[in-house]
Task: inverse folding
């Protein structure tokens, strides 16, 4: 059996809604020298049947069916089972443009010092229509990537990435502690040992909808991203990374002790609170308490009074009153 150029890595959990379109977008790539690993992480819907149907039609698909172990375990398993030197990430709710693999493989061939390459994206909604999203495109080269870290700008779109397998294995793959932001932690660890870039073409349709992970776990994701950035700064300063061997992150209140200095928990709250203001799920979970504590600590109030009105629209009058009271008394 010849070794393919790319191993496509897709982990799926109850993803039947968009899975067929995602699979077909990979199979229709103009660049055809790949194996397609699709891991069903213990789904209870029709995911397995969809995977097996396509596997029977295309021998490049290698189905992996097992019990649920979570995304990070699944991604690391896919990396270990990949036969190619290049691993292309793909999610079960997004859509590859036909030239995605061809463009990214050509970029990596022309830039051997680059270990990770993503692409710009086209944002779509659950029906495949254009999703209007304000913001910057992903950085084109490593220098812009480092600037984006400092600015808190987007770095890479996870399902649009191709990386060199050996480099990711060398840093230990995805770390279990950074659930729901495992990709950002990985990019920040890789930034110190390899160059990272994005092809400035919209090679992936990235889907936005209410049930996606970034919507359901917004608070946990933002806390993890802030801690990953702190760990990056520790490494940059030549200090040990206190998160390196963690299986899970400690409660936010214990971050001062973890990093060995005061003010870390407060800094994380100041980083997370502004993003919570626009998250329906975040304003309904522990993110709301982070916002209140951020105000009590004298943090920025930008957008806070508008959030009171937003909470009323969300059907959360008690939280609207609590936020207004905190703003008025602090």
Result:
């Amino acid at each position: 059996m010849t070794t393919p150029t790319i191993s496509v890595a897709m982990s799926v959990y109850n993803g039947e809604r968009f899975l067929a379109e995602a699979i077909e977008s990979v199979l229709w790539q103009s660049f055809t020298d790949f194996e397609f690993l699709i891991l069903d992480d213990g789904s209870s819907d029709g995911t397995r049947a969809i995977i097996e149907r396509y596997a029977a039609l295309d021998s490049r698909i290698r189905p992996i069916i097992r019990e649920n172990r979570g995304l990070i375990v699944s991604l690391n398993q896919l990396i270990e089972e990949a036969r190619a030197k290049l691993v292309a990430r793909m999610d079960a709710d997004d859509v590859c443009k036909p030239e995605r693999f061809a463009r990214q493989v050509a970029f990596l061939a022309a830039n051997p010092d680059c270990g990770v390459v993503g692409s710009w994206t086209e944002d779509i909604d659950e029906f495949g229509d254009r999703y209007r999203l304000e913001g910057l495109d992903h950085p084109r080269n490593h220098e812009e990537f480092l600037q984006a870290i400092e600015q808190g700008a987007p770095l890479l779109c996870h399902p649009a990435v191709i990386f060199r397998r050996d480099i990711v294995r060398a840093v230990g793959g995805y770390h279990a502690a950074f659930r729901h932001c495992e990709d950002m932690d990985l990019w920040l660890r890789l930034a110190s040992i390899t160059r990272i870039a994005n092809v400035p073409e919209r090679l992936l349709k990235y889907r936005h909808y209410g049930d996606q992970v970034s919507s359901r776990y917004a608070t946990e994701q933002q806390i993890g991203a802030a801690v990953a950035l702190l760990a990056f700064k520790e490494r940059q300063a030549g200090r040990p990374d206190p998160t390196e061997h963690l299986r899970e992150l400690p409660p936010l209140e214990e971050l001062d002790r973890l990093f060995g200095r005061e003010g870390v928990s407060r800094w994380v709250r100041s980083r997370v609170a502004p993003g919570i203001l626009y998250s329906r799920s975040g304003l309904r979970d522990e993110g709301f308490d982070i916002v209140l504590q951020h105000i009590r600590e004298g943090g920025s109030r930008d957008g806070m009074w508008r959030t009171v009105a937003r909470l009323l629209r969300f059907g959360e009058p008690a939280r609207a009153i609590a936020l207004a009271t905190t703003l008025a008394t602090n």
Summary: DSSP finds 15 helices and eight strands in the chain. The chain has two domains: 6-214, 217-329.
